Amino acid sequence: MAGVVESLLAELGFSLPAAPLPAANYVPVVRTGNLLFVSGQISKSPLGDEVMGKLGVDLSIEDGQKAARICAINILSQVKAAVGDLDNVVRVVRINGFVNSAPDFVDHPKVINGASDLLGQVLGEKGKHSRCALGVAALPFGVAVEIDAVIEVA
């Protein structure tokens, strides 16, 4: 049976996929004490959702926000795989968002809001976090966004 957080995700129209497998030589989550360090999750889902390309070239801010939401869903999938239930999240401590963007693109914060807004919607106060939003020249597989996270769990 789904917990509160997964029920909210479903109400918003999101499915939680199985946690994506690592694409290289790393682990998807490291737990130390009550903190989970979630490796970068890209805007490509095991469910087939993906946003590829470069913001300010072939993608709009809305496309970027969709990409960031996919990353947030993948982060939540990794957390569920690590602790079994998203209701065990105490707080999203920090996210770091990387936006594949043109050199003159300056709306990285608006793009990463796609993830921040979703985390706030499904986790409430526990979803409020510190963050950075950076533009980069390229991301793995040509995806639009990659986000990593630090999550406190019970």
Low-pLDDT runs: none
Fraction in beta strands: 25-35%
Q: Please, how many domains?
A: 1
Largest β-sheet summary: 5 strands, mixed
What is the terminal separation in angstroms?
A: 19 Å
Q: Report the C-alpha radius of gyration, rounded.
A: 14 Å
CATH class label = Alpha Beta
Care to describe what's here?
There is one protein chain. By secondary structure, the protein is an alpha+beta fold. It has a single domain (4-153), classed as 60s Ribosomal Protein L30, Chain: A (2-Layer Sandwich). Helices cover 31% and strands 26% of the residues. The protein has three helices and five strands. A five-stranded mixed beta sheet has the order 1-2-5-3-4. A hairpin with a 2-residue loop joins strand 1 (29-32) and strand 2 (35-42). Helix 2 (61-83) crosses helix 3. The model has no long low-confidence stretch (mean pLDDT 96).
